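In keeping with the milestone schedule agreed at the kick-off meeting, the structural modelling team has produced records for the first pair of proteins. Each record is given below as a sequence line and a structure-token line. The laboratory manager (R.T.) confirmed that both were archived under the project's standard naming scheme.
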Amino acid sequence: MKKQKKRRPTPTAPTKSTAGDVMNTSVVTVQEDVTVRELAALLTENEITGAPVVNQRGRLVGVVSVTDIAQSAAEGGDFSPRGDGGLFRRHDLEGRASRGELRDLHVETAGLPVRDIMTPTVFTVPEHTPVAKLAQTMISGRIHRLLVTRHGRVVGIVTALDLLKLLADRK
């Protein structure tokens, strides 16, 4: 009887997962005319950090995120205490506002429509795009979410967190 040679285990081949395999099909969209305040409530309620923006016809017109909200607030510069209506400039608050006054401040841009703060560039990928290509696109574009399309229609979303989860599951 001939002794069989033991084979070394072959390294695991990288998975051939695609955007369609890892995408979240529950895409929360936001209308371009909702206010930043309403957007913040929507993002908080759905425990997400961004969403695709659609116009009245449902056409994709941009993407908006908590970063866009923060950037808008930082660039706006005008702040108002709730209920007071008086405007303060950012430099007027330095060293003069109590902790309670600071807690009660809200950014005047909260009433702006989302279209005014969104990023009009939308990154989409077909559902058959390999996961490695998704990661490369996110890294090179410095973006956190990709919309997945089939025949030109959005069918899902892949976020940076989705890719991290995939990596963690591979252990």
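The second protein of the pair:
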Amino acid sequence: MYFLTLILISALVLLSLGALFEAPWIPTRKKDYELIVKMAKLQPGMLFYDLGSGTGEMLFYLSRKHNINCVGIEISPILYLYSKIKSLFYKKVKIMYGNFYKHDLSKADVIYVFLMPKTLDKLKRKFSKELKKYSKIIISCWPLQNCNPKQISKNDDGIPYYLYEKTALLE
């Protein structure tokens, strides 16, 4: 019983590691994937990044259904290992471990984030420095401060998704 309790506590601590880095694991709902596809105007061969990718389910869906090249960056060891192992069966999905602030995002056509508001300001600076001129950014729930989104779409529950282009970050 002691061993099982220890394993359970360890798993909970590792799963919540993302919360320490301002990114608790809250997965994007599967029924919202197509909304994101339409907002980003995803086309086969584009490079889609998910910062804080969790189990990577959206990445696997996009690669399978829309032939999108996908990169997920995850800081939780358990979620990373789960998605990394699953990615072995998806040639268009790459899962990387670590803090997304330390990864190069310059090749991304589209970046997706579902993170806490206080994280977004710091990311905005990283996006301004690293992204290509016409890279797109989709943010779930909270807008970037002092930036005008190109588009706002809401799912059937009223949860907003904000679309930005890098050029809007420079205004």
